[in-house]
Amino acid sequence: xxxxxVSPATRHWHSAAPLALELGQNLPGYTxxxxxxxxxxxxxxxxxxxxxxxxxxxxxxxxxxxxFGAGKALDPQRDFIVCSNAxxxxxxxxxxxxxxxxGGHWGTRFPKLTxxxxxxxxxxxxxxxxxxxxxxxxxxxxxxxxxxEWALLDPQRVESIAVIAASARHSxxxxxxxxxxRLSLRADPKFRGGDYPREDAPHAxxxxxRAIAMATYRSPASLDDRYGRANGAAVFDVHxxxxxxxAVRGWMQxxxxxxxxxxxxxxxxxxxxxxxQHDVGHSRGGVDAALASIRQxxxxxxxxxxxxxxxxxxxxxxxxxxxxxxxxxNSRHGHDGFLIDAAAMERSIAQxxxxxxxxxxxxxxxxxxxxxxxxx
Length: 376
What we know:
This protein is of the alpha/beta class. It has 14 helices and 10 strands. Helix 11 links the parallel strand 9 and strand 10.
């Protein structure tokens, strides 16, 4: 039984075959926690793969609820929808917090992962489930990085992709924020170089890392709209953590304290390390060549106020992928707009799926007037 909050609906698939990792090591067998919605067709050709963000889980219908339902972009009556917890995480999949073959935990012995490694594990799960064709792979943030790799690693099976709030490679900007989080986590004396006892984990450092991340997930306008300089009592009433102090400080502390109860420090490092390694052009002749080789219809979604993966990075994707459609969601919430304003893009994703299924589809840019129509 996991000590982390894994949904009882999560299933577990184990691969006894070792996974050869991109950076040269091998993972001797692994488990993926996953969930499904709908039924796989007899031909195995109606699958949709959903890829989650950094600290997400396989519970896609909960954190992306606006996209799920009859007649919606992700329709369990039509689609066989699969979301697996990423390799390296702690919500049902093998990662640093998982048992090691010697009876302990992997901890710092867990090998370095890349986004490609995570996707290759997901591909093996798809094989095991009998999936022959994938109508759509969709993901935001880290899930968007995985979605690009799905298109490149499994072009015969993947028919279309939707890449949301993501980039072709991690920028120096993203890497610098990752490093700030690493430094904060490792500054906690309880981190002990990563060899901490489970009952005395580096919660202060992990909480500080999460607080740094939260600042990158929102925009200045979003935080000012919600909190401004108001005190906690004015914003949260009796639920205020800091009634007489700035409400935004209480919000940050709440997220830090909540996170350390549900996540492992070494897993967090494994995942941000994998994201920093992300570069679709590596060993493929560069970013432009890699993106130009993507032949599937692609929906590229930008969040207007995203400061972590700014819209210019999605514009580059759209300019370089031959079959790309572009959508910018007008959101004040920053990077987290891909979750908070998911309803604003549901109609566009559903429309894209119809276009992608049409022979001879053409790329088209969705204009600001249309975006305003879709905004929630």
